[in-house]
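TA notes. Do not distribute before section.
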Amino acid sequence: MNMLDGMDVMVISYAAPAIAKGWSVSPEALGIVFSSGLVGMTFGALFLTPYADKIGRKAMILVSAAIMGTSIFLTAYSTSVVALIGFRFISGLGIGCMLASTAALAAEYTPDKTRDFWVSFVVSGYPVGAVASGLVAAKVIPQYGWPSIFQLAGVATLMALPLVYFLLSESLEFYLKSQPRQALEKANDILARMGAGQLDTLPAKPVKRQGMPINSVLDGEYKLPTIQLWIALFLAFATLYFLTSWIPKLASNAGLSVELAIYAGTVFNVGAFFGIVTQGYFSSRYGLKRTIGVILILTGVLMAAFQLFIGSTVLLFVFGLLGFGIQGGFVGLYAVAARMYPTEFRTTGVGYSIGIGRLGGIIGPAIGGVLIGMGLSMVANFLIYAIPTVFAGIMTMYISSKKIS
């Protein structure tokens, strides 16, 4: 499901050069299209994701996939920028819920010692989907036009619905702690398939916190680390979504063909996969906050030094390193959120963290569109966005939760 999430996020970036050429769309207008999807993701993460703590992670994943698949498919039939903005917003609602739900589900089925690795590994499906869709887009868009990639992405997402329904298990912790209807029967069914002993009764239900879901993550011991995590995610999101949205277009502006510009974005996501897995491994060995902080700071330094690689044969490799660093560090912050909050409001905590962070993701591509419209080069843009990347790394190191090393 995270592979489909990555595909559905990146497909607009791969189509952007062709849309801009065919419709004579300005960089500023494209920036609004990119940001509309991120606004949808923010709304989805903030206002839909908390329902996963009531209806279950699996149910929310099904809802998210249905929203994503339908809206992505219909995007192919857009005839104006306004329609693109609307469909990107709707697809963003589903995308915003998907990552939070899958991260929470992974955290609840993995042992404490290696949880950081497995949460990161599950989320690493995101760049894998982005890479796969990039390879397809590079062949399909020049031959069949940009609508074809949205049709393929929409159909692929909708085809996953029966797989999720029949093969994905609901969270055992959700049944034991949230205790929805028939929780004991459903929990015992999962335990039987795991080869574990059966329960006669459910454990005592945790005391439910009163008020809005936001009260849970901003209460008592969670308040300061939550704010620190939000700041780090906000800054990391701003850089990440600037890069994922604009790398193909910037590469095209630099003189690369449409196919090679798409490959630049693809290489970025290949690096992202290895960065996420590597970060998960080192986090399990050397500590989550320290590992993420170092990765983000080094990524900022690489962005600041990007001018050294212009015209070099290693330029695509540098794009891969940028993906390695920004995605590896950024996804590690999901693991921080999954570890920091208890089961009763874990998806809410992860969702709010992603939602607040995506405010940075909204601002990042939009400002990028303005800067590119002003004529700033790729080097100048990378130098500007190196600053929030470094600060994100520093803030991560200072997250004060006792549950995270």
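Switch to the second chain here.
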Amino acid sequence: MKTDTLKAQLKRTLRRDLWIAVAPATLLIALAFAVTFYFVKPAPPKTLVMALAPEEGGFNYMAKRYQKFLAQHGVTLELRNTKGSVGSVALLSAEDSGVDIAFAQSGTTGGKGQEVPEHVASLGSLAYVPLWVFYRGEPVDDVRGLQGKRIAVGPEDSGTRALAMTLLQANKVDTAPTELLPLDRDAAIDALTQGKVDAVFLVSSAESPRIQKLAAVKDVRLLSFTRAEAYTRRYPYLSRHVLPQGVFDFAKDVPDRDVVLLSPNALLLAKDSLHPALAYLLMRAASEIHGSAGILDKTGEFPAPLAAGFPLSSEAKRYYATGVPLLQRYLPFWAANLVDRLWVMLVPIIAVVVPLGRAVPAVFLWRVRSRIHRWYARLKEIEIQLEEDPDQEMLQDMLKRLEEAEREVNRIAVPIAYAENLYFFREHVDVVRRRLTRRLAGAPEHKDAHPLQMPA
């Protein structure tokens, strides 16, 4: 029965010591992880919303390819159609629109004059989407030759209209008697071929079947910008290109001469709050989709950090400087993102958990030893009194106190792993007891008697 009582006492004591050692460490670890979690990046959303004008710059075809690529990595791309690049940028810049990314034409804004919308950044240029000016009548070498004509400049909010108005206003041919008509792409092409308008402005890739078909229509000319270099100096988001003679149709020699074109770029824009992991995934998609050669594009030329009228995002800067992040090169998207998010958790593990893992056992050992070590004060007190030449009565009292200390220590609950501390104390009790016994018997103390040395 007494043994069971001692075992129960031992368990209670060990639990108390363990809690005293572990509880503060647990609280510190929890606090460290809580602070770290505050800085852990949230998981990227599984759905993205893209704004685009389906009839502008081949954006609808691009969007379908992005949908397929993102779906392979567990991300759904939802499309929201607009009337043009201006409308797409305006929707992207609106806080409550729900739009995350957009295709747009370089040089367009969100409808606030020439101001670049806040919180919108570029992930890069994707392709050249040239400005095509088709017209009827005598040859002209620049848009200034369209003074007084009926010109289809594209619908409101379209990137085509924004660029057309920039060039027409620069040449002061945007006012009467010039007539500007807000026709969409197909209506403008039909009106030109039927002779209802004198000229049309179109922004589209050189691979567009509509452009190549229109270039072959009899009595329809394609304007060659003789001052293209001057335009690119004034408007950095434009670039000069030469469409080679016969590139559309060698047999029919379409076009029948080299044509100098002005070209904005197709842009991939994003809110500056877009999750970094998704930004890198989108740029990986851009590299795969837009990396091949075209009539005007060279292999590997796109995506590129070209001047676009929008600031380049920080992720885009790193991507174009160093490429795909290391984790995304070798791990699936979800795994790379998980490792990247949890990487910061190494901070509390290294800074807190490892040191505390060493400290907790030391604290527990100190708790166990402290219950024994405090009785060494009784032994030391008796040893000091022995040096004062006590009488027999004092020696008997000292022996009685020594035996009492030994009994009390024997009742201390000590784990088996730390029992050596208890036996060290007993050895030291025997040392003091032998000195007392010899003194009581009147025998001289042996030279091997020595002061107590506590165990380490």
